[in-house]
Amino acid sequence: MLDLQYIRENAEVVKSAIINKATGTPDLVDHVLELDELWRKITTELQNVQTAANAEAKKIGELMKSGQKEQAQSAIAESSRLKAALKDLEEGQRTAALSLDAALLEIPNVPHPSVPIGKVPSDNVVAFEHGVFPAFSFQPVPHWDILEKHDLVDFDRGSKVAGAGFPFYKGPGARFQRALINFFLDQAIGSGYLEIQAPLVVNEDSARGTGQLPDKEDLMYEAVRDGLYLIPTAEVPVTNLHRDEILSESDLPIKYCAYTPCFRREAGSYGKDVRGLNRLHQFDKIELVHFVRPEDSYEALEELRAHAEDLLQKLGLPYRRLLMCTGDMGFTQAKKYDLEVWSAGQERWLEVSSISNFETFQARRMKIRYRSKSEARPQIVHTINGSGLALPRIVAALLENNQQEDGSITIPPALRSYFGSETLISS
RNA sequence: GGAGGGGUGGCAGAGCCCGGCUGAAUGCACCGGUCUUGAAAACCGGCAUACGUUUGCGCGUAUCGUGGGUUCGAAUCCCACCCCCUCCGCCA
């Protein structure tokens, strides 16, 4: 959610943002400004009447005390008349506020000036590439063949027990996951993050706070009876951790890392995009979250990005960093990077991390503020988050890139102590 | 599941029975100052949030879990809902 005053003062900027993000019509801005004006008009009038009513009530108290009953009676009559007027104004204000809030929620975050303007994925800028593609003396196979050969993941029984996209990981497959989780967490802790174990369900307020509601409810599994949502990412509970709080400036920056399973309905996908581990309804991810002062947020974005890239480098995975264009970056982000690893068996890039600066967009909804020494009022923090990292596609890329002619898989040195051996072979 | 207690400012905690003098005592934290070589202590002053309005000082409105009601007037009385805590039971 953007600051209303900002929209008033920067209407054209916000309109361009809507156009560049292709997320609605710029008329929304005018609509918001009209509703804002209406709301303010009603509010001013309402407050004037309230002032009169308050004065009258106070007068009555004094008259009663001094025994001037007659004057008190006429004041009571006047007060009753004001009260009737208040009712209509209050109703009008409420209606105006609801419309205004609803319209405001339709306005996307404004992209940072450094974000390229574009509409489609091909407009994203490849900002960085690292590593070399692995060379093979044989034809490398996609990871689903490897998973089957070594019996690492059981998709069919997962389908039976839960549904498509809910696999069982078995033996070395499960162990490999656990190794990655521990490796990622230890790396994050070493970089100064505080480890968090978060609830895997959140309430409606939390889902709204990070922007999953109102319009992305199809993304989430819902426990209707209890009004809870299964988290689509740890970003939701971890960012909401400080909802409705005023932090002290000395608390910042706050950096959390959290491992959680993530649940996504992801309706409407098909084909090779969802083959194997490429896209699942439940997957594991380590999420990194920063709460920072506004002036520090772009530095923090690069810092978090570097932490995520460091993991890929330590795993020896060739990857590239995309700077997402306005049309492909999402509603709530001000700037976003995607990290993609090269998957040699499928010969394609797989997205494994998405790193974004939300500026005040999330924090304003959640009322996460801090007391600043230089400002009289509490300031809204900036939030930044990114995956560090999402497991399934990392598993896919590691299996595909490190496969050997004899069918075994070489484990990257950084993971060996976690996995317990140098190679993965059939048990 | 049974019984009881409670939700007040950054935190702790009065006020509620007996409605107006309470946007709210007091303490802590925090900020500024005096003192000090410096710090601590002591002392003095400031300090809820949001919105509206104003060039500004300021003024106004709302907010004591949420929503509704009674009343000229509600933190305070009534109703509903949400949440938390304690004890007992059950259980990993």
Describe this structure in words.
The structure is a single chain. The protein has 427 residues and is α+β, with helices and mostly antiparallel strands. It folds into 2 domains: 4-104, Helix Hairpins; 121-419, Bira Bifunctional Protein, Domain 2 (BirA Bifunctional Protein, domain 2), CATH 3.30.930.10. The protein contains 13 helices and 18 strands. The strands form 5 sheets. It has an 8-stranded mixed β-sheet. A hairpin with a 4-residue loop joins strand 12 (335-343) and strand 13 (348-359). The longest helix is centred in the first third of the chain and has 39 residues, at 27-65. The radius of gyration is 27 Å and the shape is elongated. The mean pLDDT is 91. The protein binds one RNA strand of 92 nucleotides through residues 40, 43-44, 46-48, 50-51, 53-54, 56-62, 64-65, 72, 75-80, 82-83, 245-248, 367, 369, 371, 373, 377-378.
Topology:
Layout: H1 4-9, H2 11-21, H3 27-65, H4 69-104, E1 125-130, H5 143-150, E2 153-154, H6 155-161, E3 168-169, H7 172-190, E4 194-196, E5 201-203, H8 204-209, E6 222-223, E7 228-230, H9 235-240, E8 246-248, E9 254-263, E10 282-292, H10 297-314, E11 319-323, E12 335-343, E13 348-359, H11 361-366, E14 369-371, E15 379-380, E16 382-390, H12 391-401, E17 409-410, H13 413-419, E18 423-424
The protein binds one RNA strand of 92 nucleotides through residues 40, 43-44, 46-48, 50-51, 53-54, 56-62, 64-65, 72, 75-80, 82-83, 245-248, 367, 369, 371, 373, 377-378.
